[in-house]
């Protein structure tokens, strides 16, 4: 019997989001226990419509890319682990059912998620294969009117808790990967060990043994060769780091300012110290950069479409957003002094903020690997362009062209000189910063989508200066790798023209 339509599904978007934002105080990271969220807690969020933007209208949802982004951003400001929680269920699980599920599967899944406090997870990683998914050992076979899946997976978010899974498995003979929905109550997905993670404790992790059968119509329609569909699935979650970073860093920016304004030192406060103000500003500028990445995700991408062609942007987003989160979490903890090293400190959230942010550079593809992908994509397009100057190519490469005028005073001429593997990783990191400058440049030309996301015009130039400074440092690191790992230095290797990059006319807005 189908359920009545949820009245939240028909609210105006602003009203829906304002209601959600105004009702999640109890989930604040300073208050919510750092343990897997209770079903009662999840029920409250489901009643606020947390999943509705990811559920198609035909199944009683709100079907909105923009709201999916906003719910994650808003949640991450309150509580980063809960932003991650929301992302996994909506962007990784529900999005793939909506895009590739059979009608009967959609009906079953969406009816469950629209009305009940249920959880969906994604099972890709195995003890023997994380970065190299192609080596996965979990297999699927035809088994009469079903598929049988056997193997071991680990580090899945919601290992013990998820009611639904999307499982990736390999055919033992054909080089083919399949993606299968599985309802946990059908049996065969068993958590044999619970992992004690350092952070993100509102989600549980563990080691899982799989020996299960799924009906034929639970197989998702994914037809790319090799791991092409896994890459597309991960594009969406990598993009979502912009939403998490934007919410999280806005919170850290506010918290760090409050901290230094209230902490008494001598006759004044920490805020009177120049270096402290500089660090607070660095956190602020990292927020401004992630806010720009987020605006790109919300306004220029769409979770309901195939994201393969946005691979470059999604990789750059994940690398940059996660590295800025980690850097700022450390700075914020430093500003909180000894109390920042204390879980449950009365005046700051620094201990958990750092533990939660730490893993973002590791999961969802480790950043070092993603940097490599990013660099290879760039080098391939550069070679295809027939151009000789990487800088000239940057000025024509869709995702980076907006950054061009900010780069003309950095010597990037050797970027494409067939770098060694270690340099390829650093090149990827440089490209992520260039992408960030482009996103900032674009954001500076457009009005903020809402008052919550507005930043001062003057902040754009400062945030661009921070990223330029990082590029200069990375260009120097490019040289350093050769000395440390013993490879031959390239003749005339990268060297910035100027040793200091200032935010004067060189980073002026177009
Ligand atoms: C908190 C958390 C949540 C997770 N959630 C999920 C989930 O929900 N579902 C799921 O399926 N998986 C999940 N994972 C697994 C996660 O995606 C993997 O841990 C990650 O992809 C890295 O794989 P690995 O652990 O096997 O590391 P490895 O592949 O062993 O890599 C270890 C390190 O080696 C280096 N390295 C590896 N390859 C390269 C390269 N090409 N270039 C340079 N350096 C390299 C990097 O420094 C890397 O960090 C989660 C992990 C954690 C910690």
TrEMBL record:
CDD domains: ACAD. The keyword Oxidoreductase applies. Keywords: FAD, Flavoprotein, Oxidoreductase. Gene3D superfamilies: Acyl-CoA dehydrogenase/oxidase, N-terminal domain, Butyryl-CoA Dehydrogenase, subunit A, domain 2, Butyryl-CoA Dehydrogenase, subunit A, domain 3. Pfam families: Acyl-CoA_dh_1, Acyl-CoA_dh_M, Acyl-CoA_dh_N. The keyword Flavoprotein applies. Residues 225-375 form the Acyl-CoA dehydrogenase/oxidase C-terminal domain. InterPro entries: Acyl-CoA_Oxase/DH_mid-dom, Acyl-CoA_Oxase/DH_mid-dom_sf, AcylCo_DH-like_C, AcylCo_DH/oxidase_C, AcylCoA_DH/ox_N, AcylCoA_DH/ox_N_sf, AcylCoA_DH/oxidase_NM_dom_sf. It comes from the Bacteria. This is Acyl-CoA dehydrogenase. Belongs to the acyl-CoA dehydrogenase family. Residues 38-114 form the Acyl-CoA dehydrogenase/oxidase N-terminal domain. It comes from Streptomyces angustmyceticus. GO terms for molecular function: acyl-CoA dehydrogenase activity; flavin adenine dinucleotide binding. Its cofactor is FAD. Residues 122-204 form the Acyl-CoA oxidase/dehydrogenase middle domain.
């Amino acid at each position: 019997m189908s359920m009545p339509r949820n009245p939240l599904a028909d609210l105006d978007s602003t009203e829906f989001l304002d209601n959600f934002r105004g009702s999640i105080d109890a989930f604040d990271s300073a208050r919510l226990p750092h343990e897997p969220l209770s079903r009662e807690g999840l029920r409250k969020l489901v009643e606020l419509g947390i999943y509705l933007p990811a559920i198609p209208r035909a199944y009683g949802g709100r079907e909105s890319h923009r709201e999916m982004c906003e719910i994650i951003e808003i949640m991450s400001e309150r509580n980063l682990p809960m932003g991650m929680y929301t992302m996994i269920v909506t962007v990784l699980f529900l999005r793939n059912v909506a895009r590739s599920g059979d009608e009967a599967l959609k009906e079953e899944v969406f009816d469950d998620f629209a009305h009940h406090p249920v959880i969906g997870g994604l099972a890709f990683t195995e003890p023997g294969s994380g970065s190299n998914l192609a080596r996965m050992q979990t297999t699927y076979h035809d088994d009469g009117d079903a598929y049988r899946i056997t193997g071991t997976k680990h580090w899945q978010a919601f290992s013990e808790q998820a009611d639904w899974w999307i499982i990736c498995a390999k055919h033992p003979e054909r080089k083919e990967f399949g993606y299968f929905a599985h309802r946990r109550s059908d049996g065969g997905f068993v958590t044999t060990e619970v992992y004690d993670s350092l952070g993100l404790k509102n989600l549980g992790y563990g080691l899982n043994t799989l020996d299960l059968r799924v009906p034929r119509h639970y197989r998702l329609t994914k037809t790319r060769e090799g791991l092409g569909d896994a890459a597309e699935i991960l594009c969406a979650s990598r993009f979502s780091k912009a939403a998490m970073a934007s919410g999280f860093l806005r919170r850290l920016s506010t918290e760090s300012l409050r901290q230094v304004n209230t902490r008494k030192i001598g006759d004044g406060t920490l805020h009177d110290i120049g270096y402290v103000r500089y660090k607070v500003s660095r956190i602020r500028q990292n927020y401004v950069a992630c806010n720009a990445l987020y605006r790109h995700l919300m306004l220029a991408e769409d979770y309901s479409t195939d994201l393969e062609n946005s691979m470059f942007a999604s990789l750059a987003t994940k690398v940059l957003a996660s590295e800025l989160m980690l850097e700022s979490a450390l700075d914020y903890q430093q500003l909180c002094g000894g109390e920042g090293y204390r879980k449950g400190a009365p005046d700051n959230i620094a201990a958990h903020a750092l533990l939660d942010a730490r893993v973002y550079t590791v999961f969802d593809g480790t950043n070092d690997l993603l940097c490599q992908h990013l660099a290879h994509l760039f080098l391939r397009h550069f070679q295809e362009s027939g151009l000789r100057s990487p800088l000239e190519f940057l000025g024509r490469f869709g995702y980076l062209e907006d950054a061009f005028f900010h780069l003309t005073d950095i010597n990037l001429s050797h970027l494409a000189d067939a770098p060694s593997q270690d340099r390829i990783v650093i090149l990827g990191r440089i490209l992520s910063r260039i992408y960030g400058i482009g996103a900032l440049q674009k954001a500076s030309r457009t009005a903020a989508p809402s008052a919550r996301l507005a930043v001062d015009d003057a902040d754009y130039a400062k945030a661009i200066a921070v990223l330029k400074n990082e590029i200069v440092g990375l260009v120097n690191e490019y040289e350093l790798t050769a000395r440390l790992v013993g490879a031959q230095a390239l003749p005339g290797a990268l060297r910035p023209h100027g040793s200091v990059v200032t935010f004067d006319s060189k980073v002026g807005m177009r």
